[in-house]
Design brief:
Structural class: alpha/beta
Number of helices: 13
Largest sheet: 6 strands, mixed
Radius of gyration: 21 Å
Order of helices and strands: HHEEHHEEEHEEHEHHHHEHEHEEH
Strand order of the largest sheet: 8-9-10-5-11-12
């Protein structure tokens, strides 16, 4: 790219990696939610300011945002899941990770930072290429999702349309799917059992649907998300991973899901919560693992859980 530039070639470079931007670019154009935020000379835009423009939060506004997350009470609880030097085929650098019973933690970073790839490695959704894993102190192998499920781990994926719902199947069949996989397809639930399970979680999560037989593709995005959440709660997991559970849904449902996360944690479930909205992460998480360029670059907790600290860590500590 530098050689082409020296020969007078103009280059448009699109990347998620900030280090690359600052190494090769002269100007930066920032887009957010399909809208132009602005165009800036590279010398006049420090990294932390770039991050704030990408996230839609000005630094002056962040000092006034209250951290509403409840006091962390899981510090003395047993470790439910622990990984050392875990890495995957998706370029995730080896990282250490653990979560205790009743804890809500999260991976944060810009889109493309590797936060989703980390939890996909934990669940075995991407090929694990190294590292050791313990569940409740036992060393286990999690090479594929069924291994994770059998060890009490559940995963709500980032893209519900592509990886979550099966659009032509009913709400009932979508809800029972994960539990049926654990049980085995050669031991199907009776229709009465399936209806009972579906009705239980439709009521619990206040899912708006005409009936258990309604195709899930007919539901709103928020109700589809609740169905997938119900699918995993039906397996009674010890450790629940939620990747962008509130993306593209209405504000009311967002609040419902955040409240449910804190309620489940108070009942002893361990939860990893990922959101592009930093405010959401601060409301729900007691510890944040910061990703940049597919590498774990910081762990924040306690008084460090502020918008400014998160942004500075994402940006590489530069002001």
């Amino acid at each position: 790219m530098r050689d082409l530039k020296s020969r007078g070639v103009g280059i448009i470079f699109v990347t998620h990696f900030l280090d690359q931007v600052y190494e090769v670019c002269d100007r930066i154009t920032v887009l957010r939610d399909g809208q132009l935020v602005g165009e800036y000379e590279i010398e006049s835009l420090p990294r932390v300011q770039l991050v704030s423009k990408m996230l839609g939060k000005e630094l002056d506004d962040m000092a006034d945002i209250k951290n509403d997350a409840p006091e962390f009470k899981a510090a003395d609880n047993e470790v439910v899941y622990e990984a050392e030097e875990l890495c995957s085929s998706e370029g995730i650098k080896p990282f250490d990770f653990s979560i205790r019973k009743g804890e809500v933690n999260g991976f944060t970073g810009l889109l493309g930072s590797g936060r989703s790839e980390c939890v996909r490695a934990i669940f075995g959704a991407d090929k694990v290429t190294g590292g050791t894993v313990k569940v409740e102190g036992r060393t286990v192998k999690i090479n594929k999702p069924i291994d994770a499920m059998k060890n009490g781990i559940a995963y709500l994926p980032e893209d519900r349309k592509r990886d979550g719902i099966i659009g032509d199947l009913s709400v009932r069949d979508n809800i029972i799917l994960a539990l049926q996989v654990k049980k085995g397809f050669f031991k199907p639930f009776s229709k009465a059992e399936a209806i009972k399970f579906a009705e239980e979680y439709i009521k619990l999560l206040d899912i708006k649907t005409a009936s258990v037989d309604t195709p899930i593709k007919s539901l709103s995005g928020g109700n589809q998300q609740k169905v997938i959440l119900g699918r995993w709660l039906l397996t009674h997991p010890k450790y629940l991973i939620l990747d962008e559970p509130t993306r593209g849904i209405d504000v009311g449902t967002k609040v419902d899901i955040q409240k449910l996360v804190l309620k489940l944690a108070s009942e002893g479930m361990s939860i990893t919560f990922i959101s592009s909205e930093t405010d959401e992460m601060l409301r729900t998480c007691s510890r944040l693992l910061v990703m940049r360029d597919r590498k774990l670059v910081g762990v924040l907790e306690g008084s460090e859980l502020t918008q400014n600290t998160i942004m500075n860590t994402i940006a590489g500590g530069e002001q």
